[in-house]
Specification:
Layout: H1 13-35, H2 48-73, H3 84-103, H4 119-126, H5 130-146, H6 151-172, H7 183-186, H8 199-217, H9 221-254, H10 262-285, H11 290-298, H12 300-312, H13 320-323, H14 330-357, H15 361-378
Helix pairs in contact: 1-2, 1-10, 1-11, 1-12, 1-14, 2-8, 3-5, 5-8, 6-8, 6-10, 9-10, 12-14
Length: 379
């Protein structure tokens, strides 16, 4: 990078690489899980148990990296809080993510059909997935950033919030929220009706990312380089051991399920920190491809949506994931996963090419997609 770039603006390639690898793991995981016959995947046996555990890391990796990047990309006002310009941009982005999350699972063919949607379909619509979780957590982080007047304070408060979310998760999930909250709100707090990513404990990873990003931001470029080279893997290993100890003691005492165990969250965080450390060393080998890989990493939302459309289609037009659900062999599932991993970034490159070569292509693409969505909802 050029020396003319301010020190704090340096992008950490290791974070982009970690997020991109999480996206690749997510695409192949979704495809194989959707297509391959369940009896061919023995999730309690090696190597499928490792595959299943790694699948569970993709969302936390994405959330931790997103929280870390938030700190580096945030512009601050004269008081040290998030600037109004950044606040508006982040909130707009959060609303877009939330809208995308619900439109991907829209329960009716047209808006006029919504009053006639069956309760089961409506419950599926309310289920909280990674997009809804990311959007709501980002809104909370934006609020915290606008009311915190130094990066150090932001990091400390985010760390406390993250650990509190992890610690409170078993208590929150012991409450039957659907008994006294509307289904839309209860789905953010409970997994009883299928929410894959309720706020507790998953949002804690993004707050933890903000804390980690604040720690890195406060260091000089040289200090960050030394930390990434010498200490990040050690830090991850310490968190892994600490989390394993907490998990074992807590599980023995309270028999808390693995997903909600605070020790499990810290254990996962340790693995992710070590993973980011490995990406730092991998980044040195992949430096010639940095610009292209950073481009793909910055398009993580697009990758998520495109691969889901390729795999499942839309609420109006199904694709292979729904048509041939759990019917494929391992070979067919692996080949399909490879194709989706190739086609998804290929479509992003095509979009970039069209935007750079055709006059007003970006406006045309945007409003064409909006017109198609409006037509599907109304007609």
């Amino acid at each position: 990078m050029s020396n003319s770039i301010p020190n704090k603006k340096h992008r950490l390639f290791a974070l982009d690489l970690a997020r991109l690898m999480a996206m690749l793991m997510m695409m192949q995981g979704h495809t194989i899980d959707a297509l391959v016959q369940p009896q061919l995947m023995h999730l309690d046996e090696f190597p499928w148990n490792v595959w299943q555990f790694m699948r569970g890391l993709t969302a936390p990796i994405f959330l931790i990296v997103s929280g870390t990047v938030h700190v580096f990309a945030m512009k601050r006002n004269e008081l040290g809080a998030m600037s109004e310009e950044t606040r508006k941009r982040r909130m707009n982005w959060a609303w877009i993510i939330l809208l995308c999350g619900y439109m991907l699972v829209f329960p009716a063919n047209r808006l006029i059909d919504l009053p006639f949607v069956q309760p089961d379909a409506l419950a599926m619509f309310f289920q909280v997935n990674i997009l809804q979780l990311t959007a709501c957590t980002l809104m909370a982080i934006v609020w915290l950033s606008t009311h915190t007047y130094s990066v150090r304070t932001l990091g400390i408060r985010s760390g406390i919030i993250a650990l509190s979310i992890f610690a409170l998760a078993p208590i929150v999930h012991s409450i039957h929220w659907f008994e006294f909250l509307p289904g839309f709100f209860a789905s953010f707090l409970s997994a009883e009706r299928g929410s894959l990513f309720p706020l507790f404990p998953t949002s804690g990873f993004m707050f933890l990312g903000v804390a980690f990003g604040s720690f890195l931001y406060l260091q000089t470029e040289e200090q960050r380089a030394i930390f990434m080279r010498k200490y990040i893997i050690l830090l991850g290993f310490i968190l892994f051991i600490l989390g394993a100890g907490i998990y074992q003691s807590t599980y023995t005492i309270a028999l808390i399920m693995e997903y909600l165990n605070p020790g499990s969250m810290i254990l996962r965080t340790g693995i992710i920190i070590m993973f980011i450390g490995l990406c730092f060393y991998m980044g040195k080998l992949l430096r010639p491809f940095e610009d292209r890989l950073v481009f793909f990493s910055s398009k993580s939302l697009h990758i998520y949506i495109i691969h889901l459309l390729l795999l499942y289609g839309t609420p109006w037009f199904p694709s292979i994931g729904r048509i041939f659900s759990h019917e494929a062999s391992l070979e067919v599932g692996a080949l399909t996963a490879l194709l989706i991993v190739i086609i998804t970034p290929g479509l992003l490159l095509l979009d970039q090419y069209l935007r750079s070569t055709l006059f007003y292509a970006h406006v045309t693409i945007k409003y064409t997609l909006l017109a198609m969505l409006a037509y599907a909802l109304i007609v």
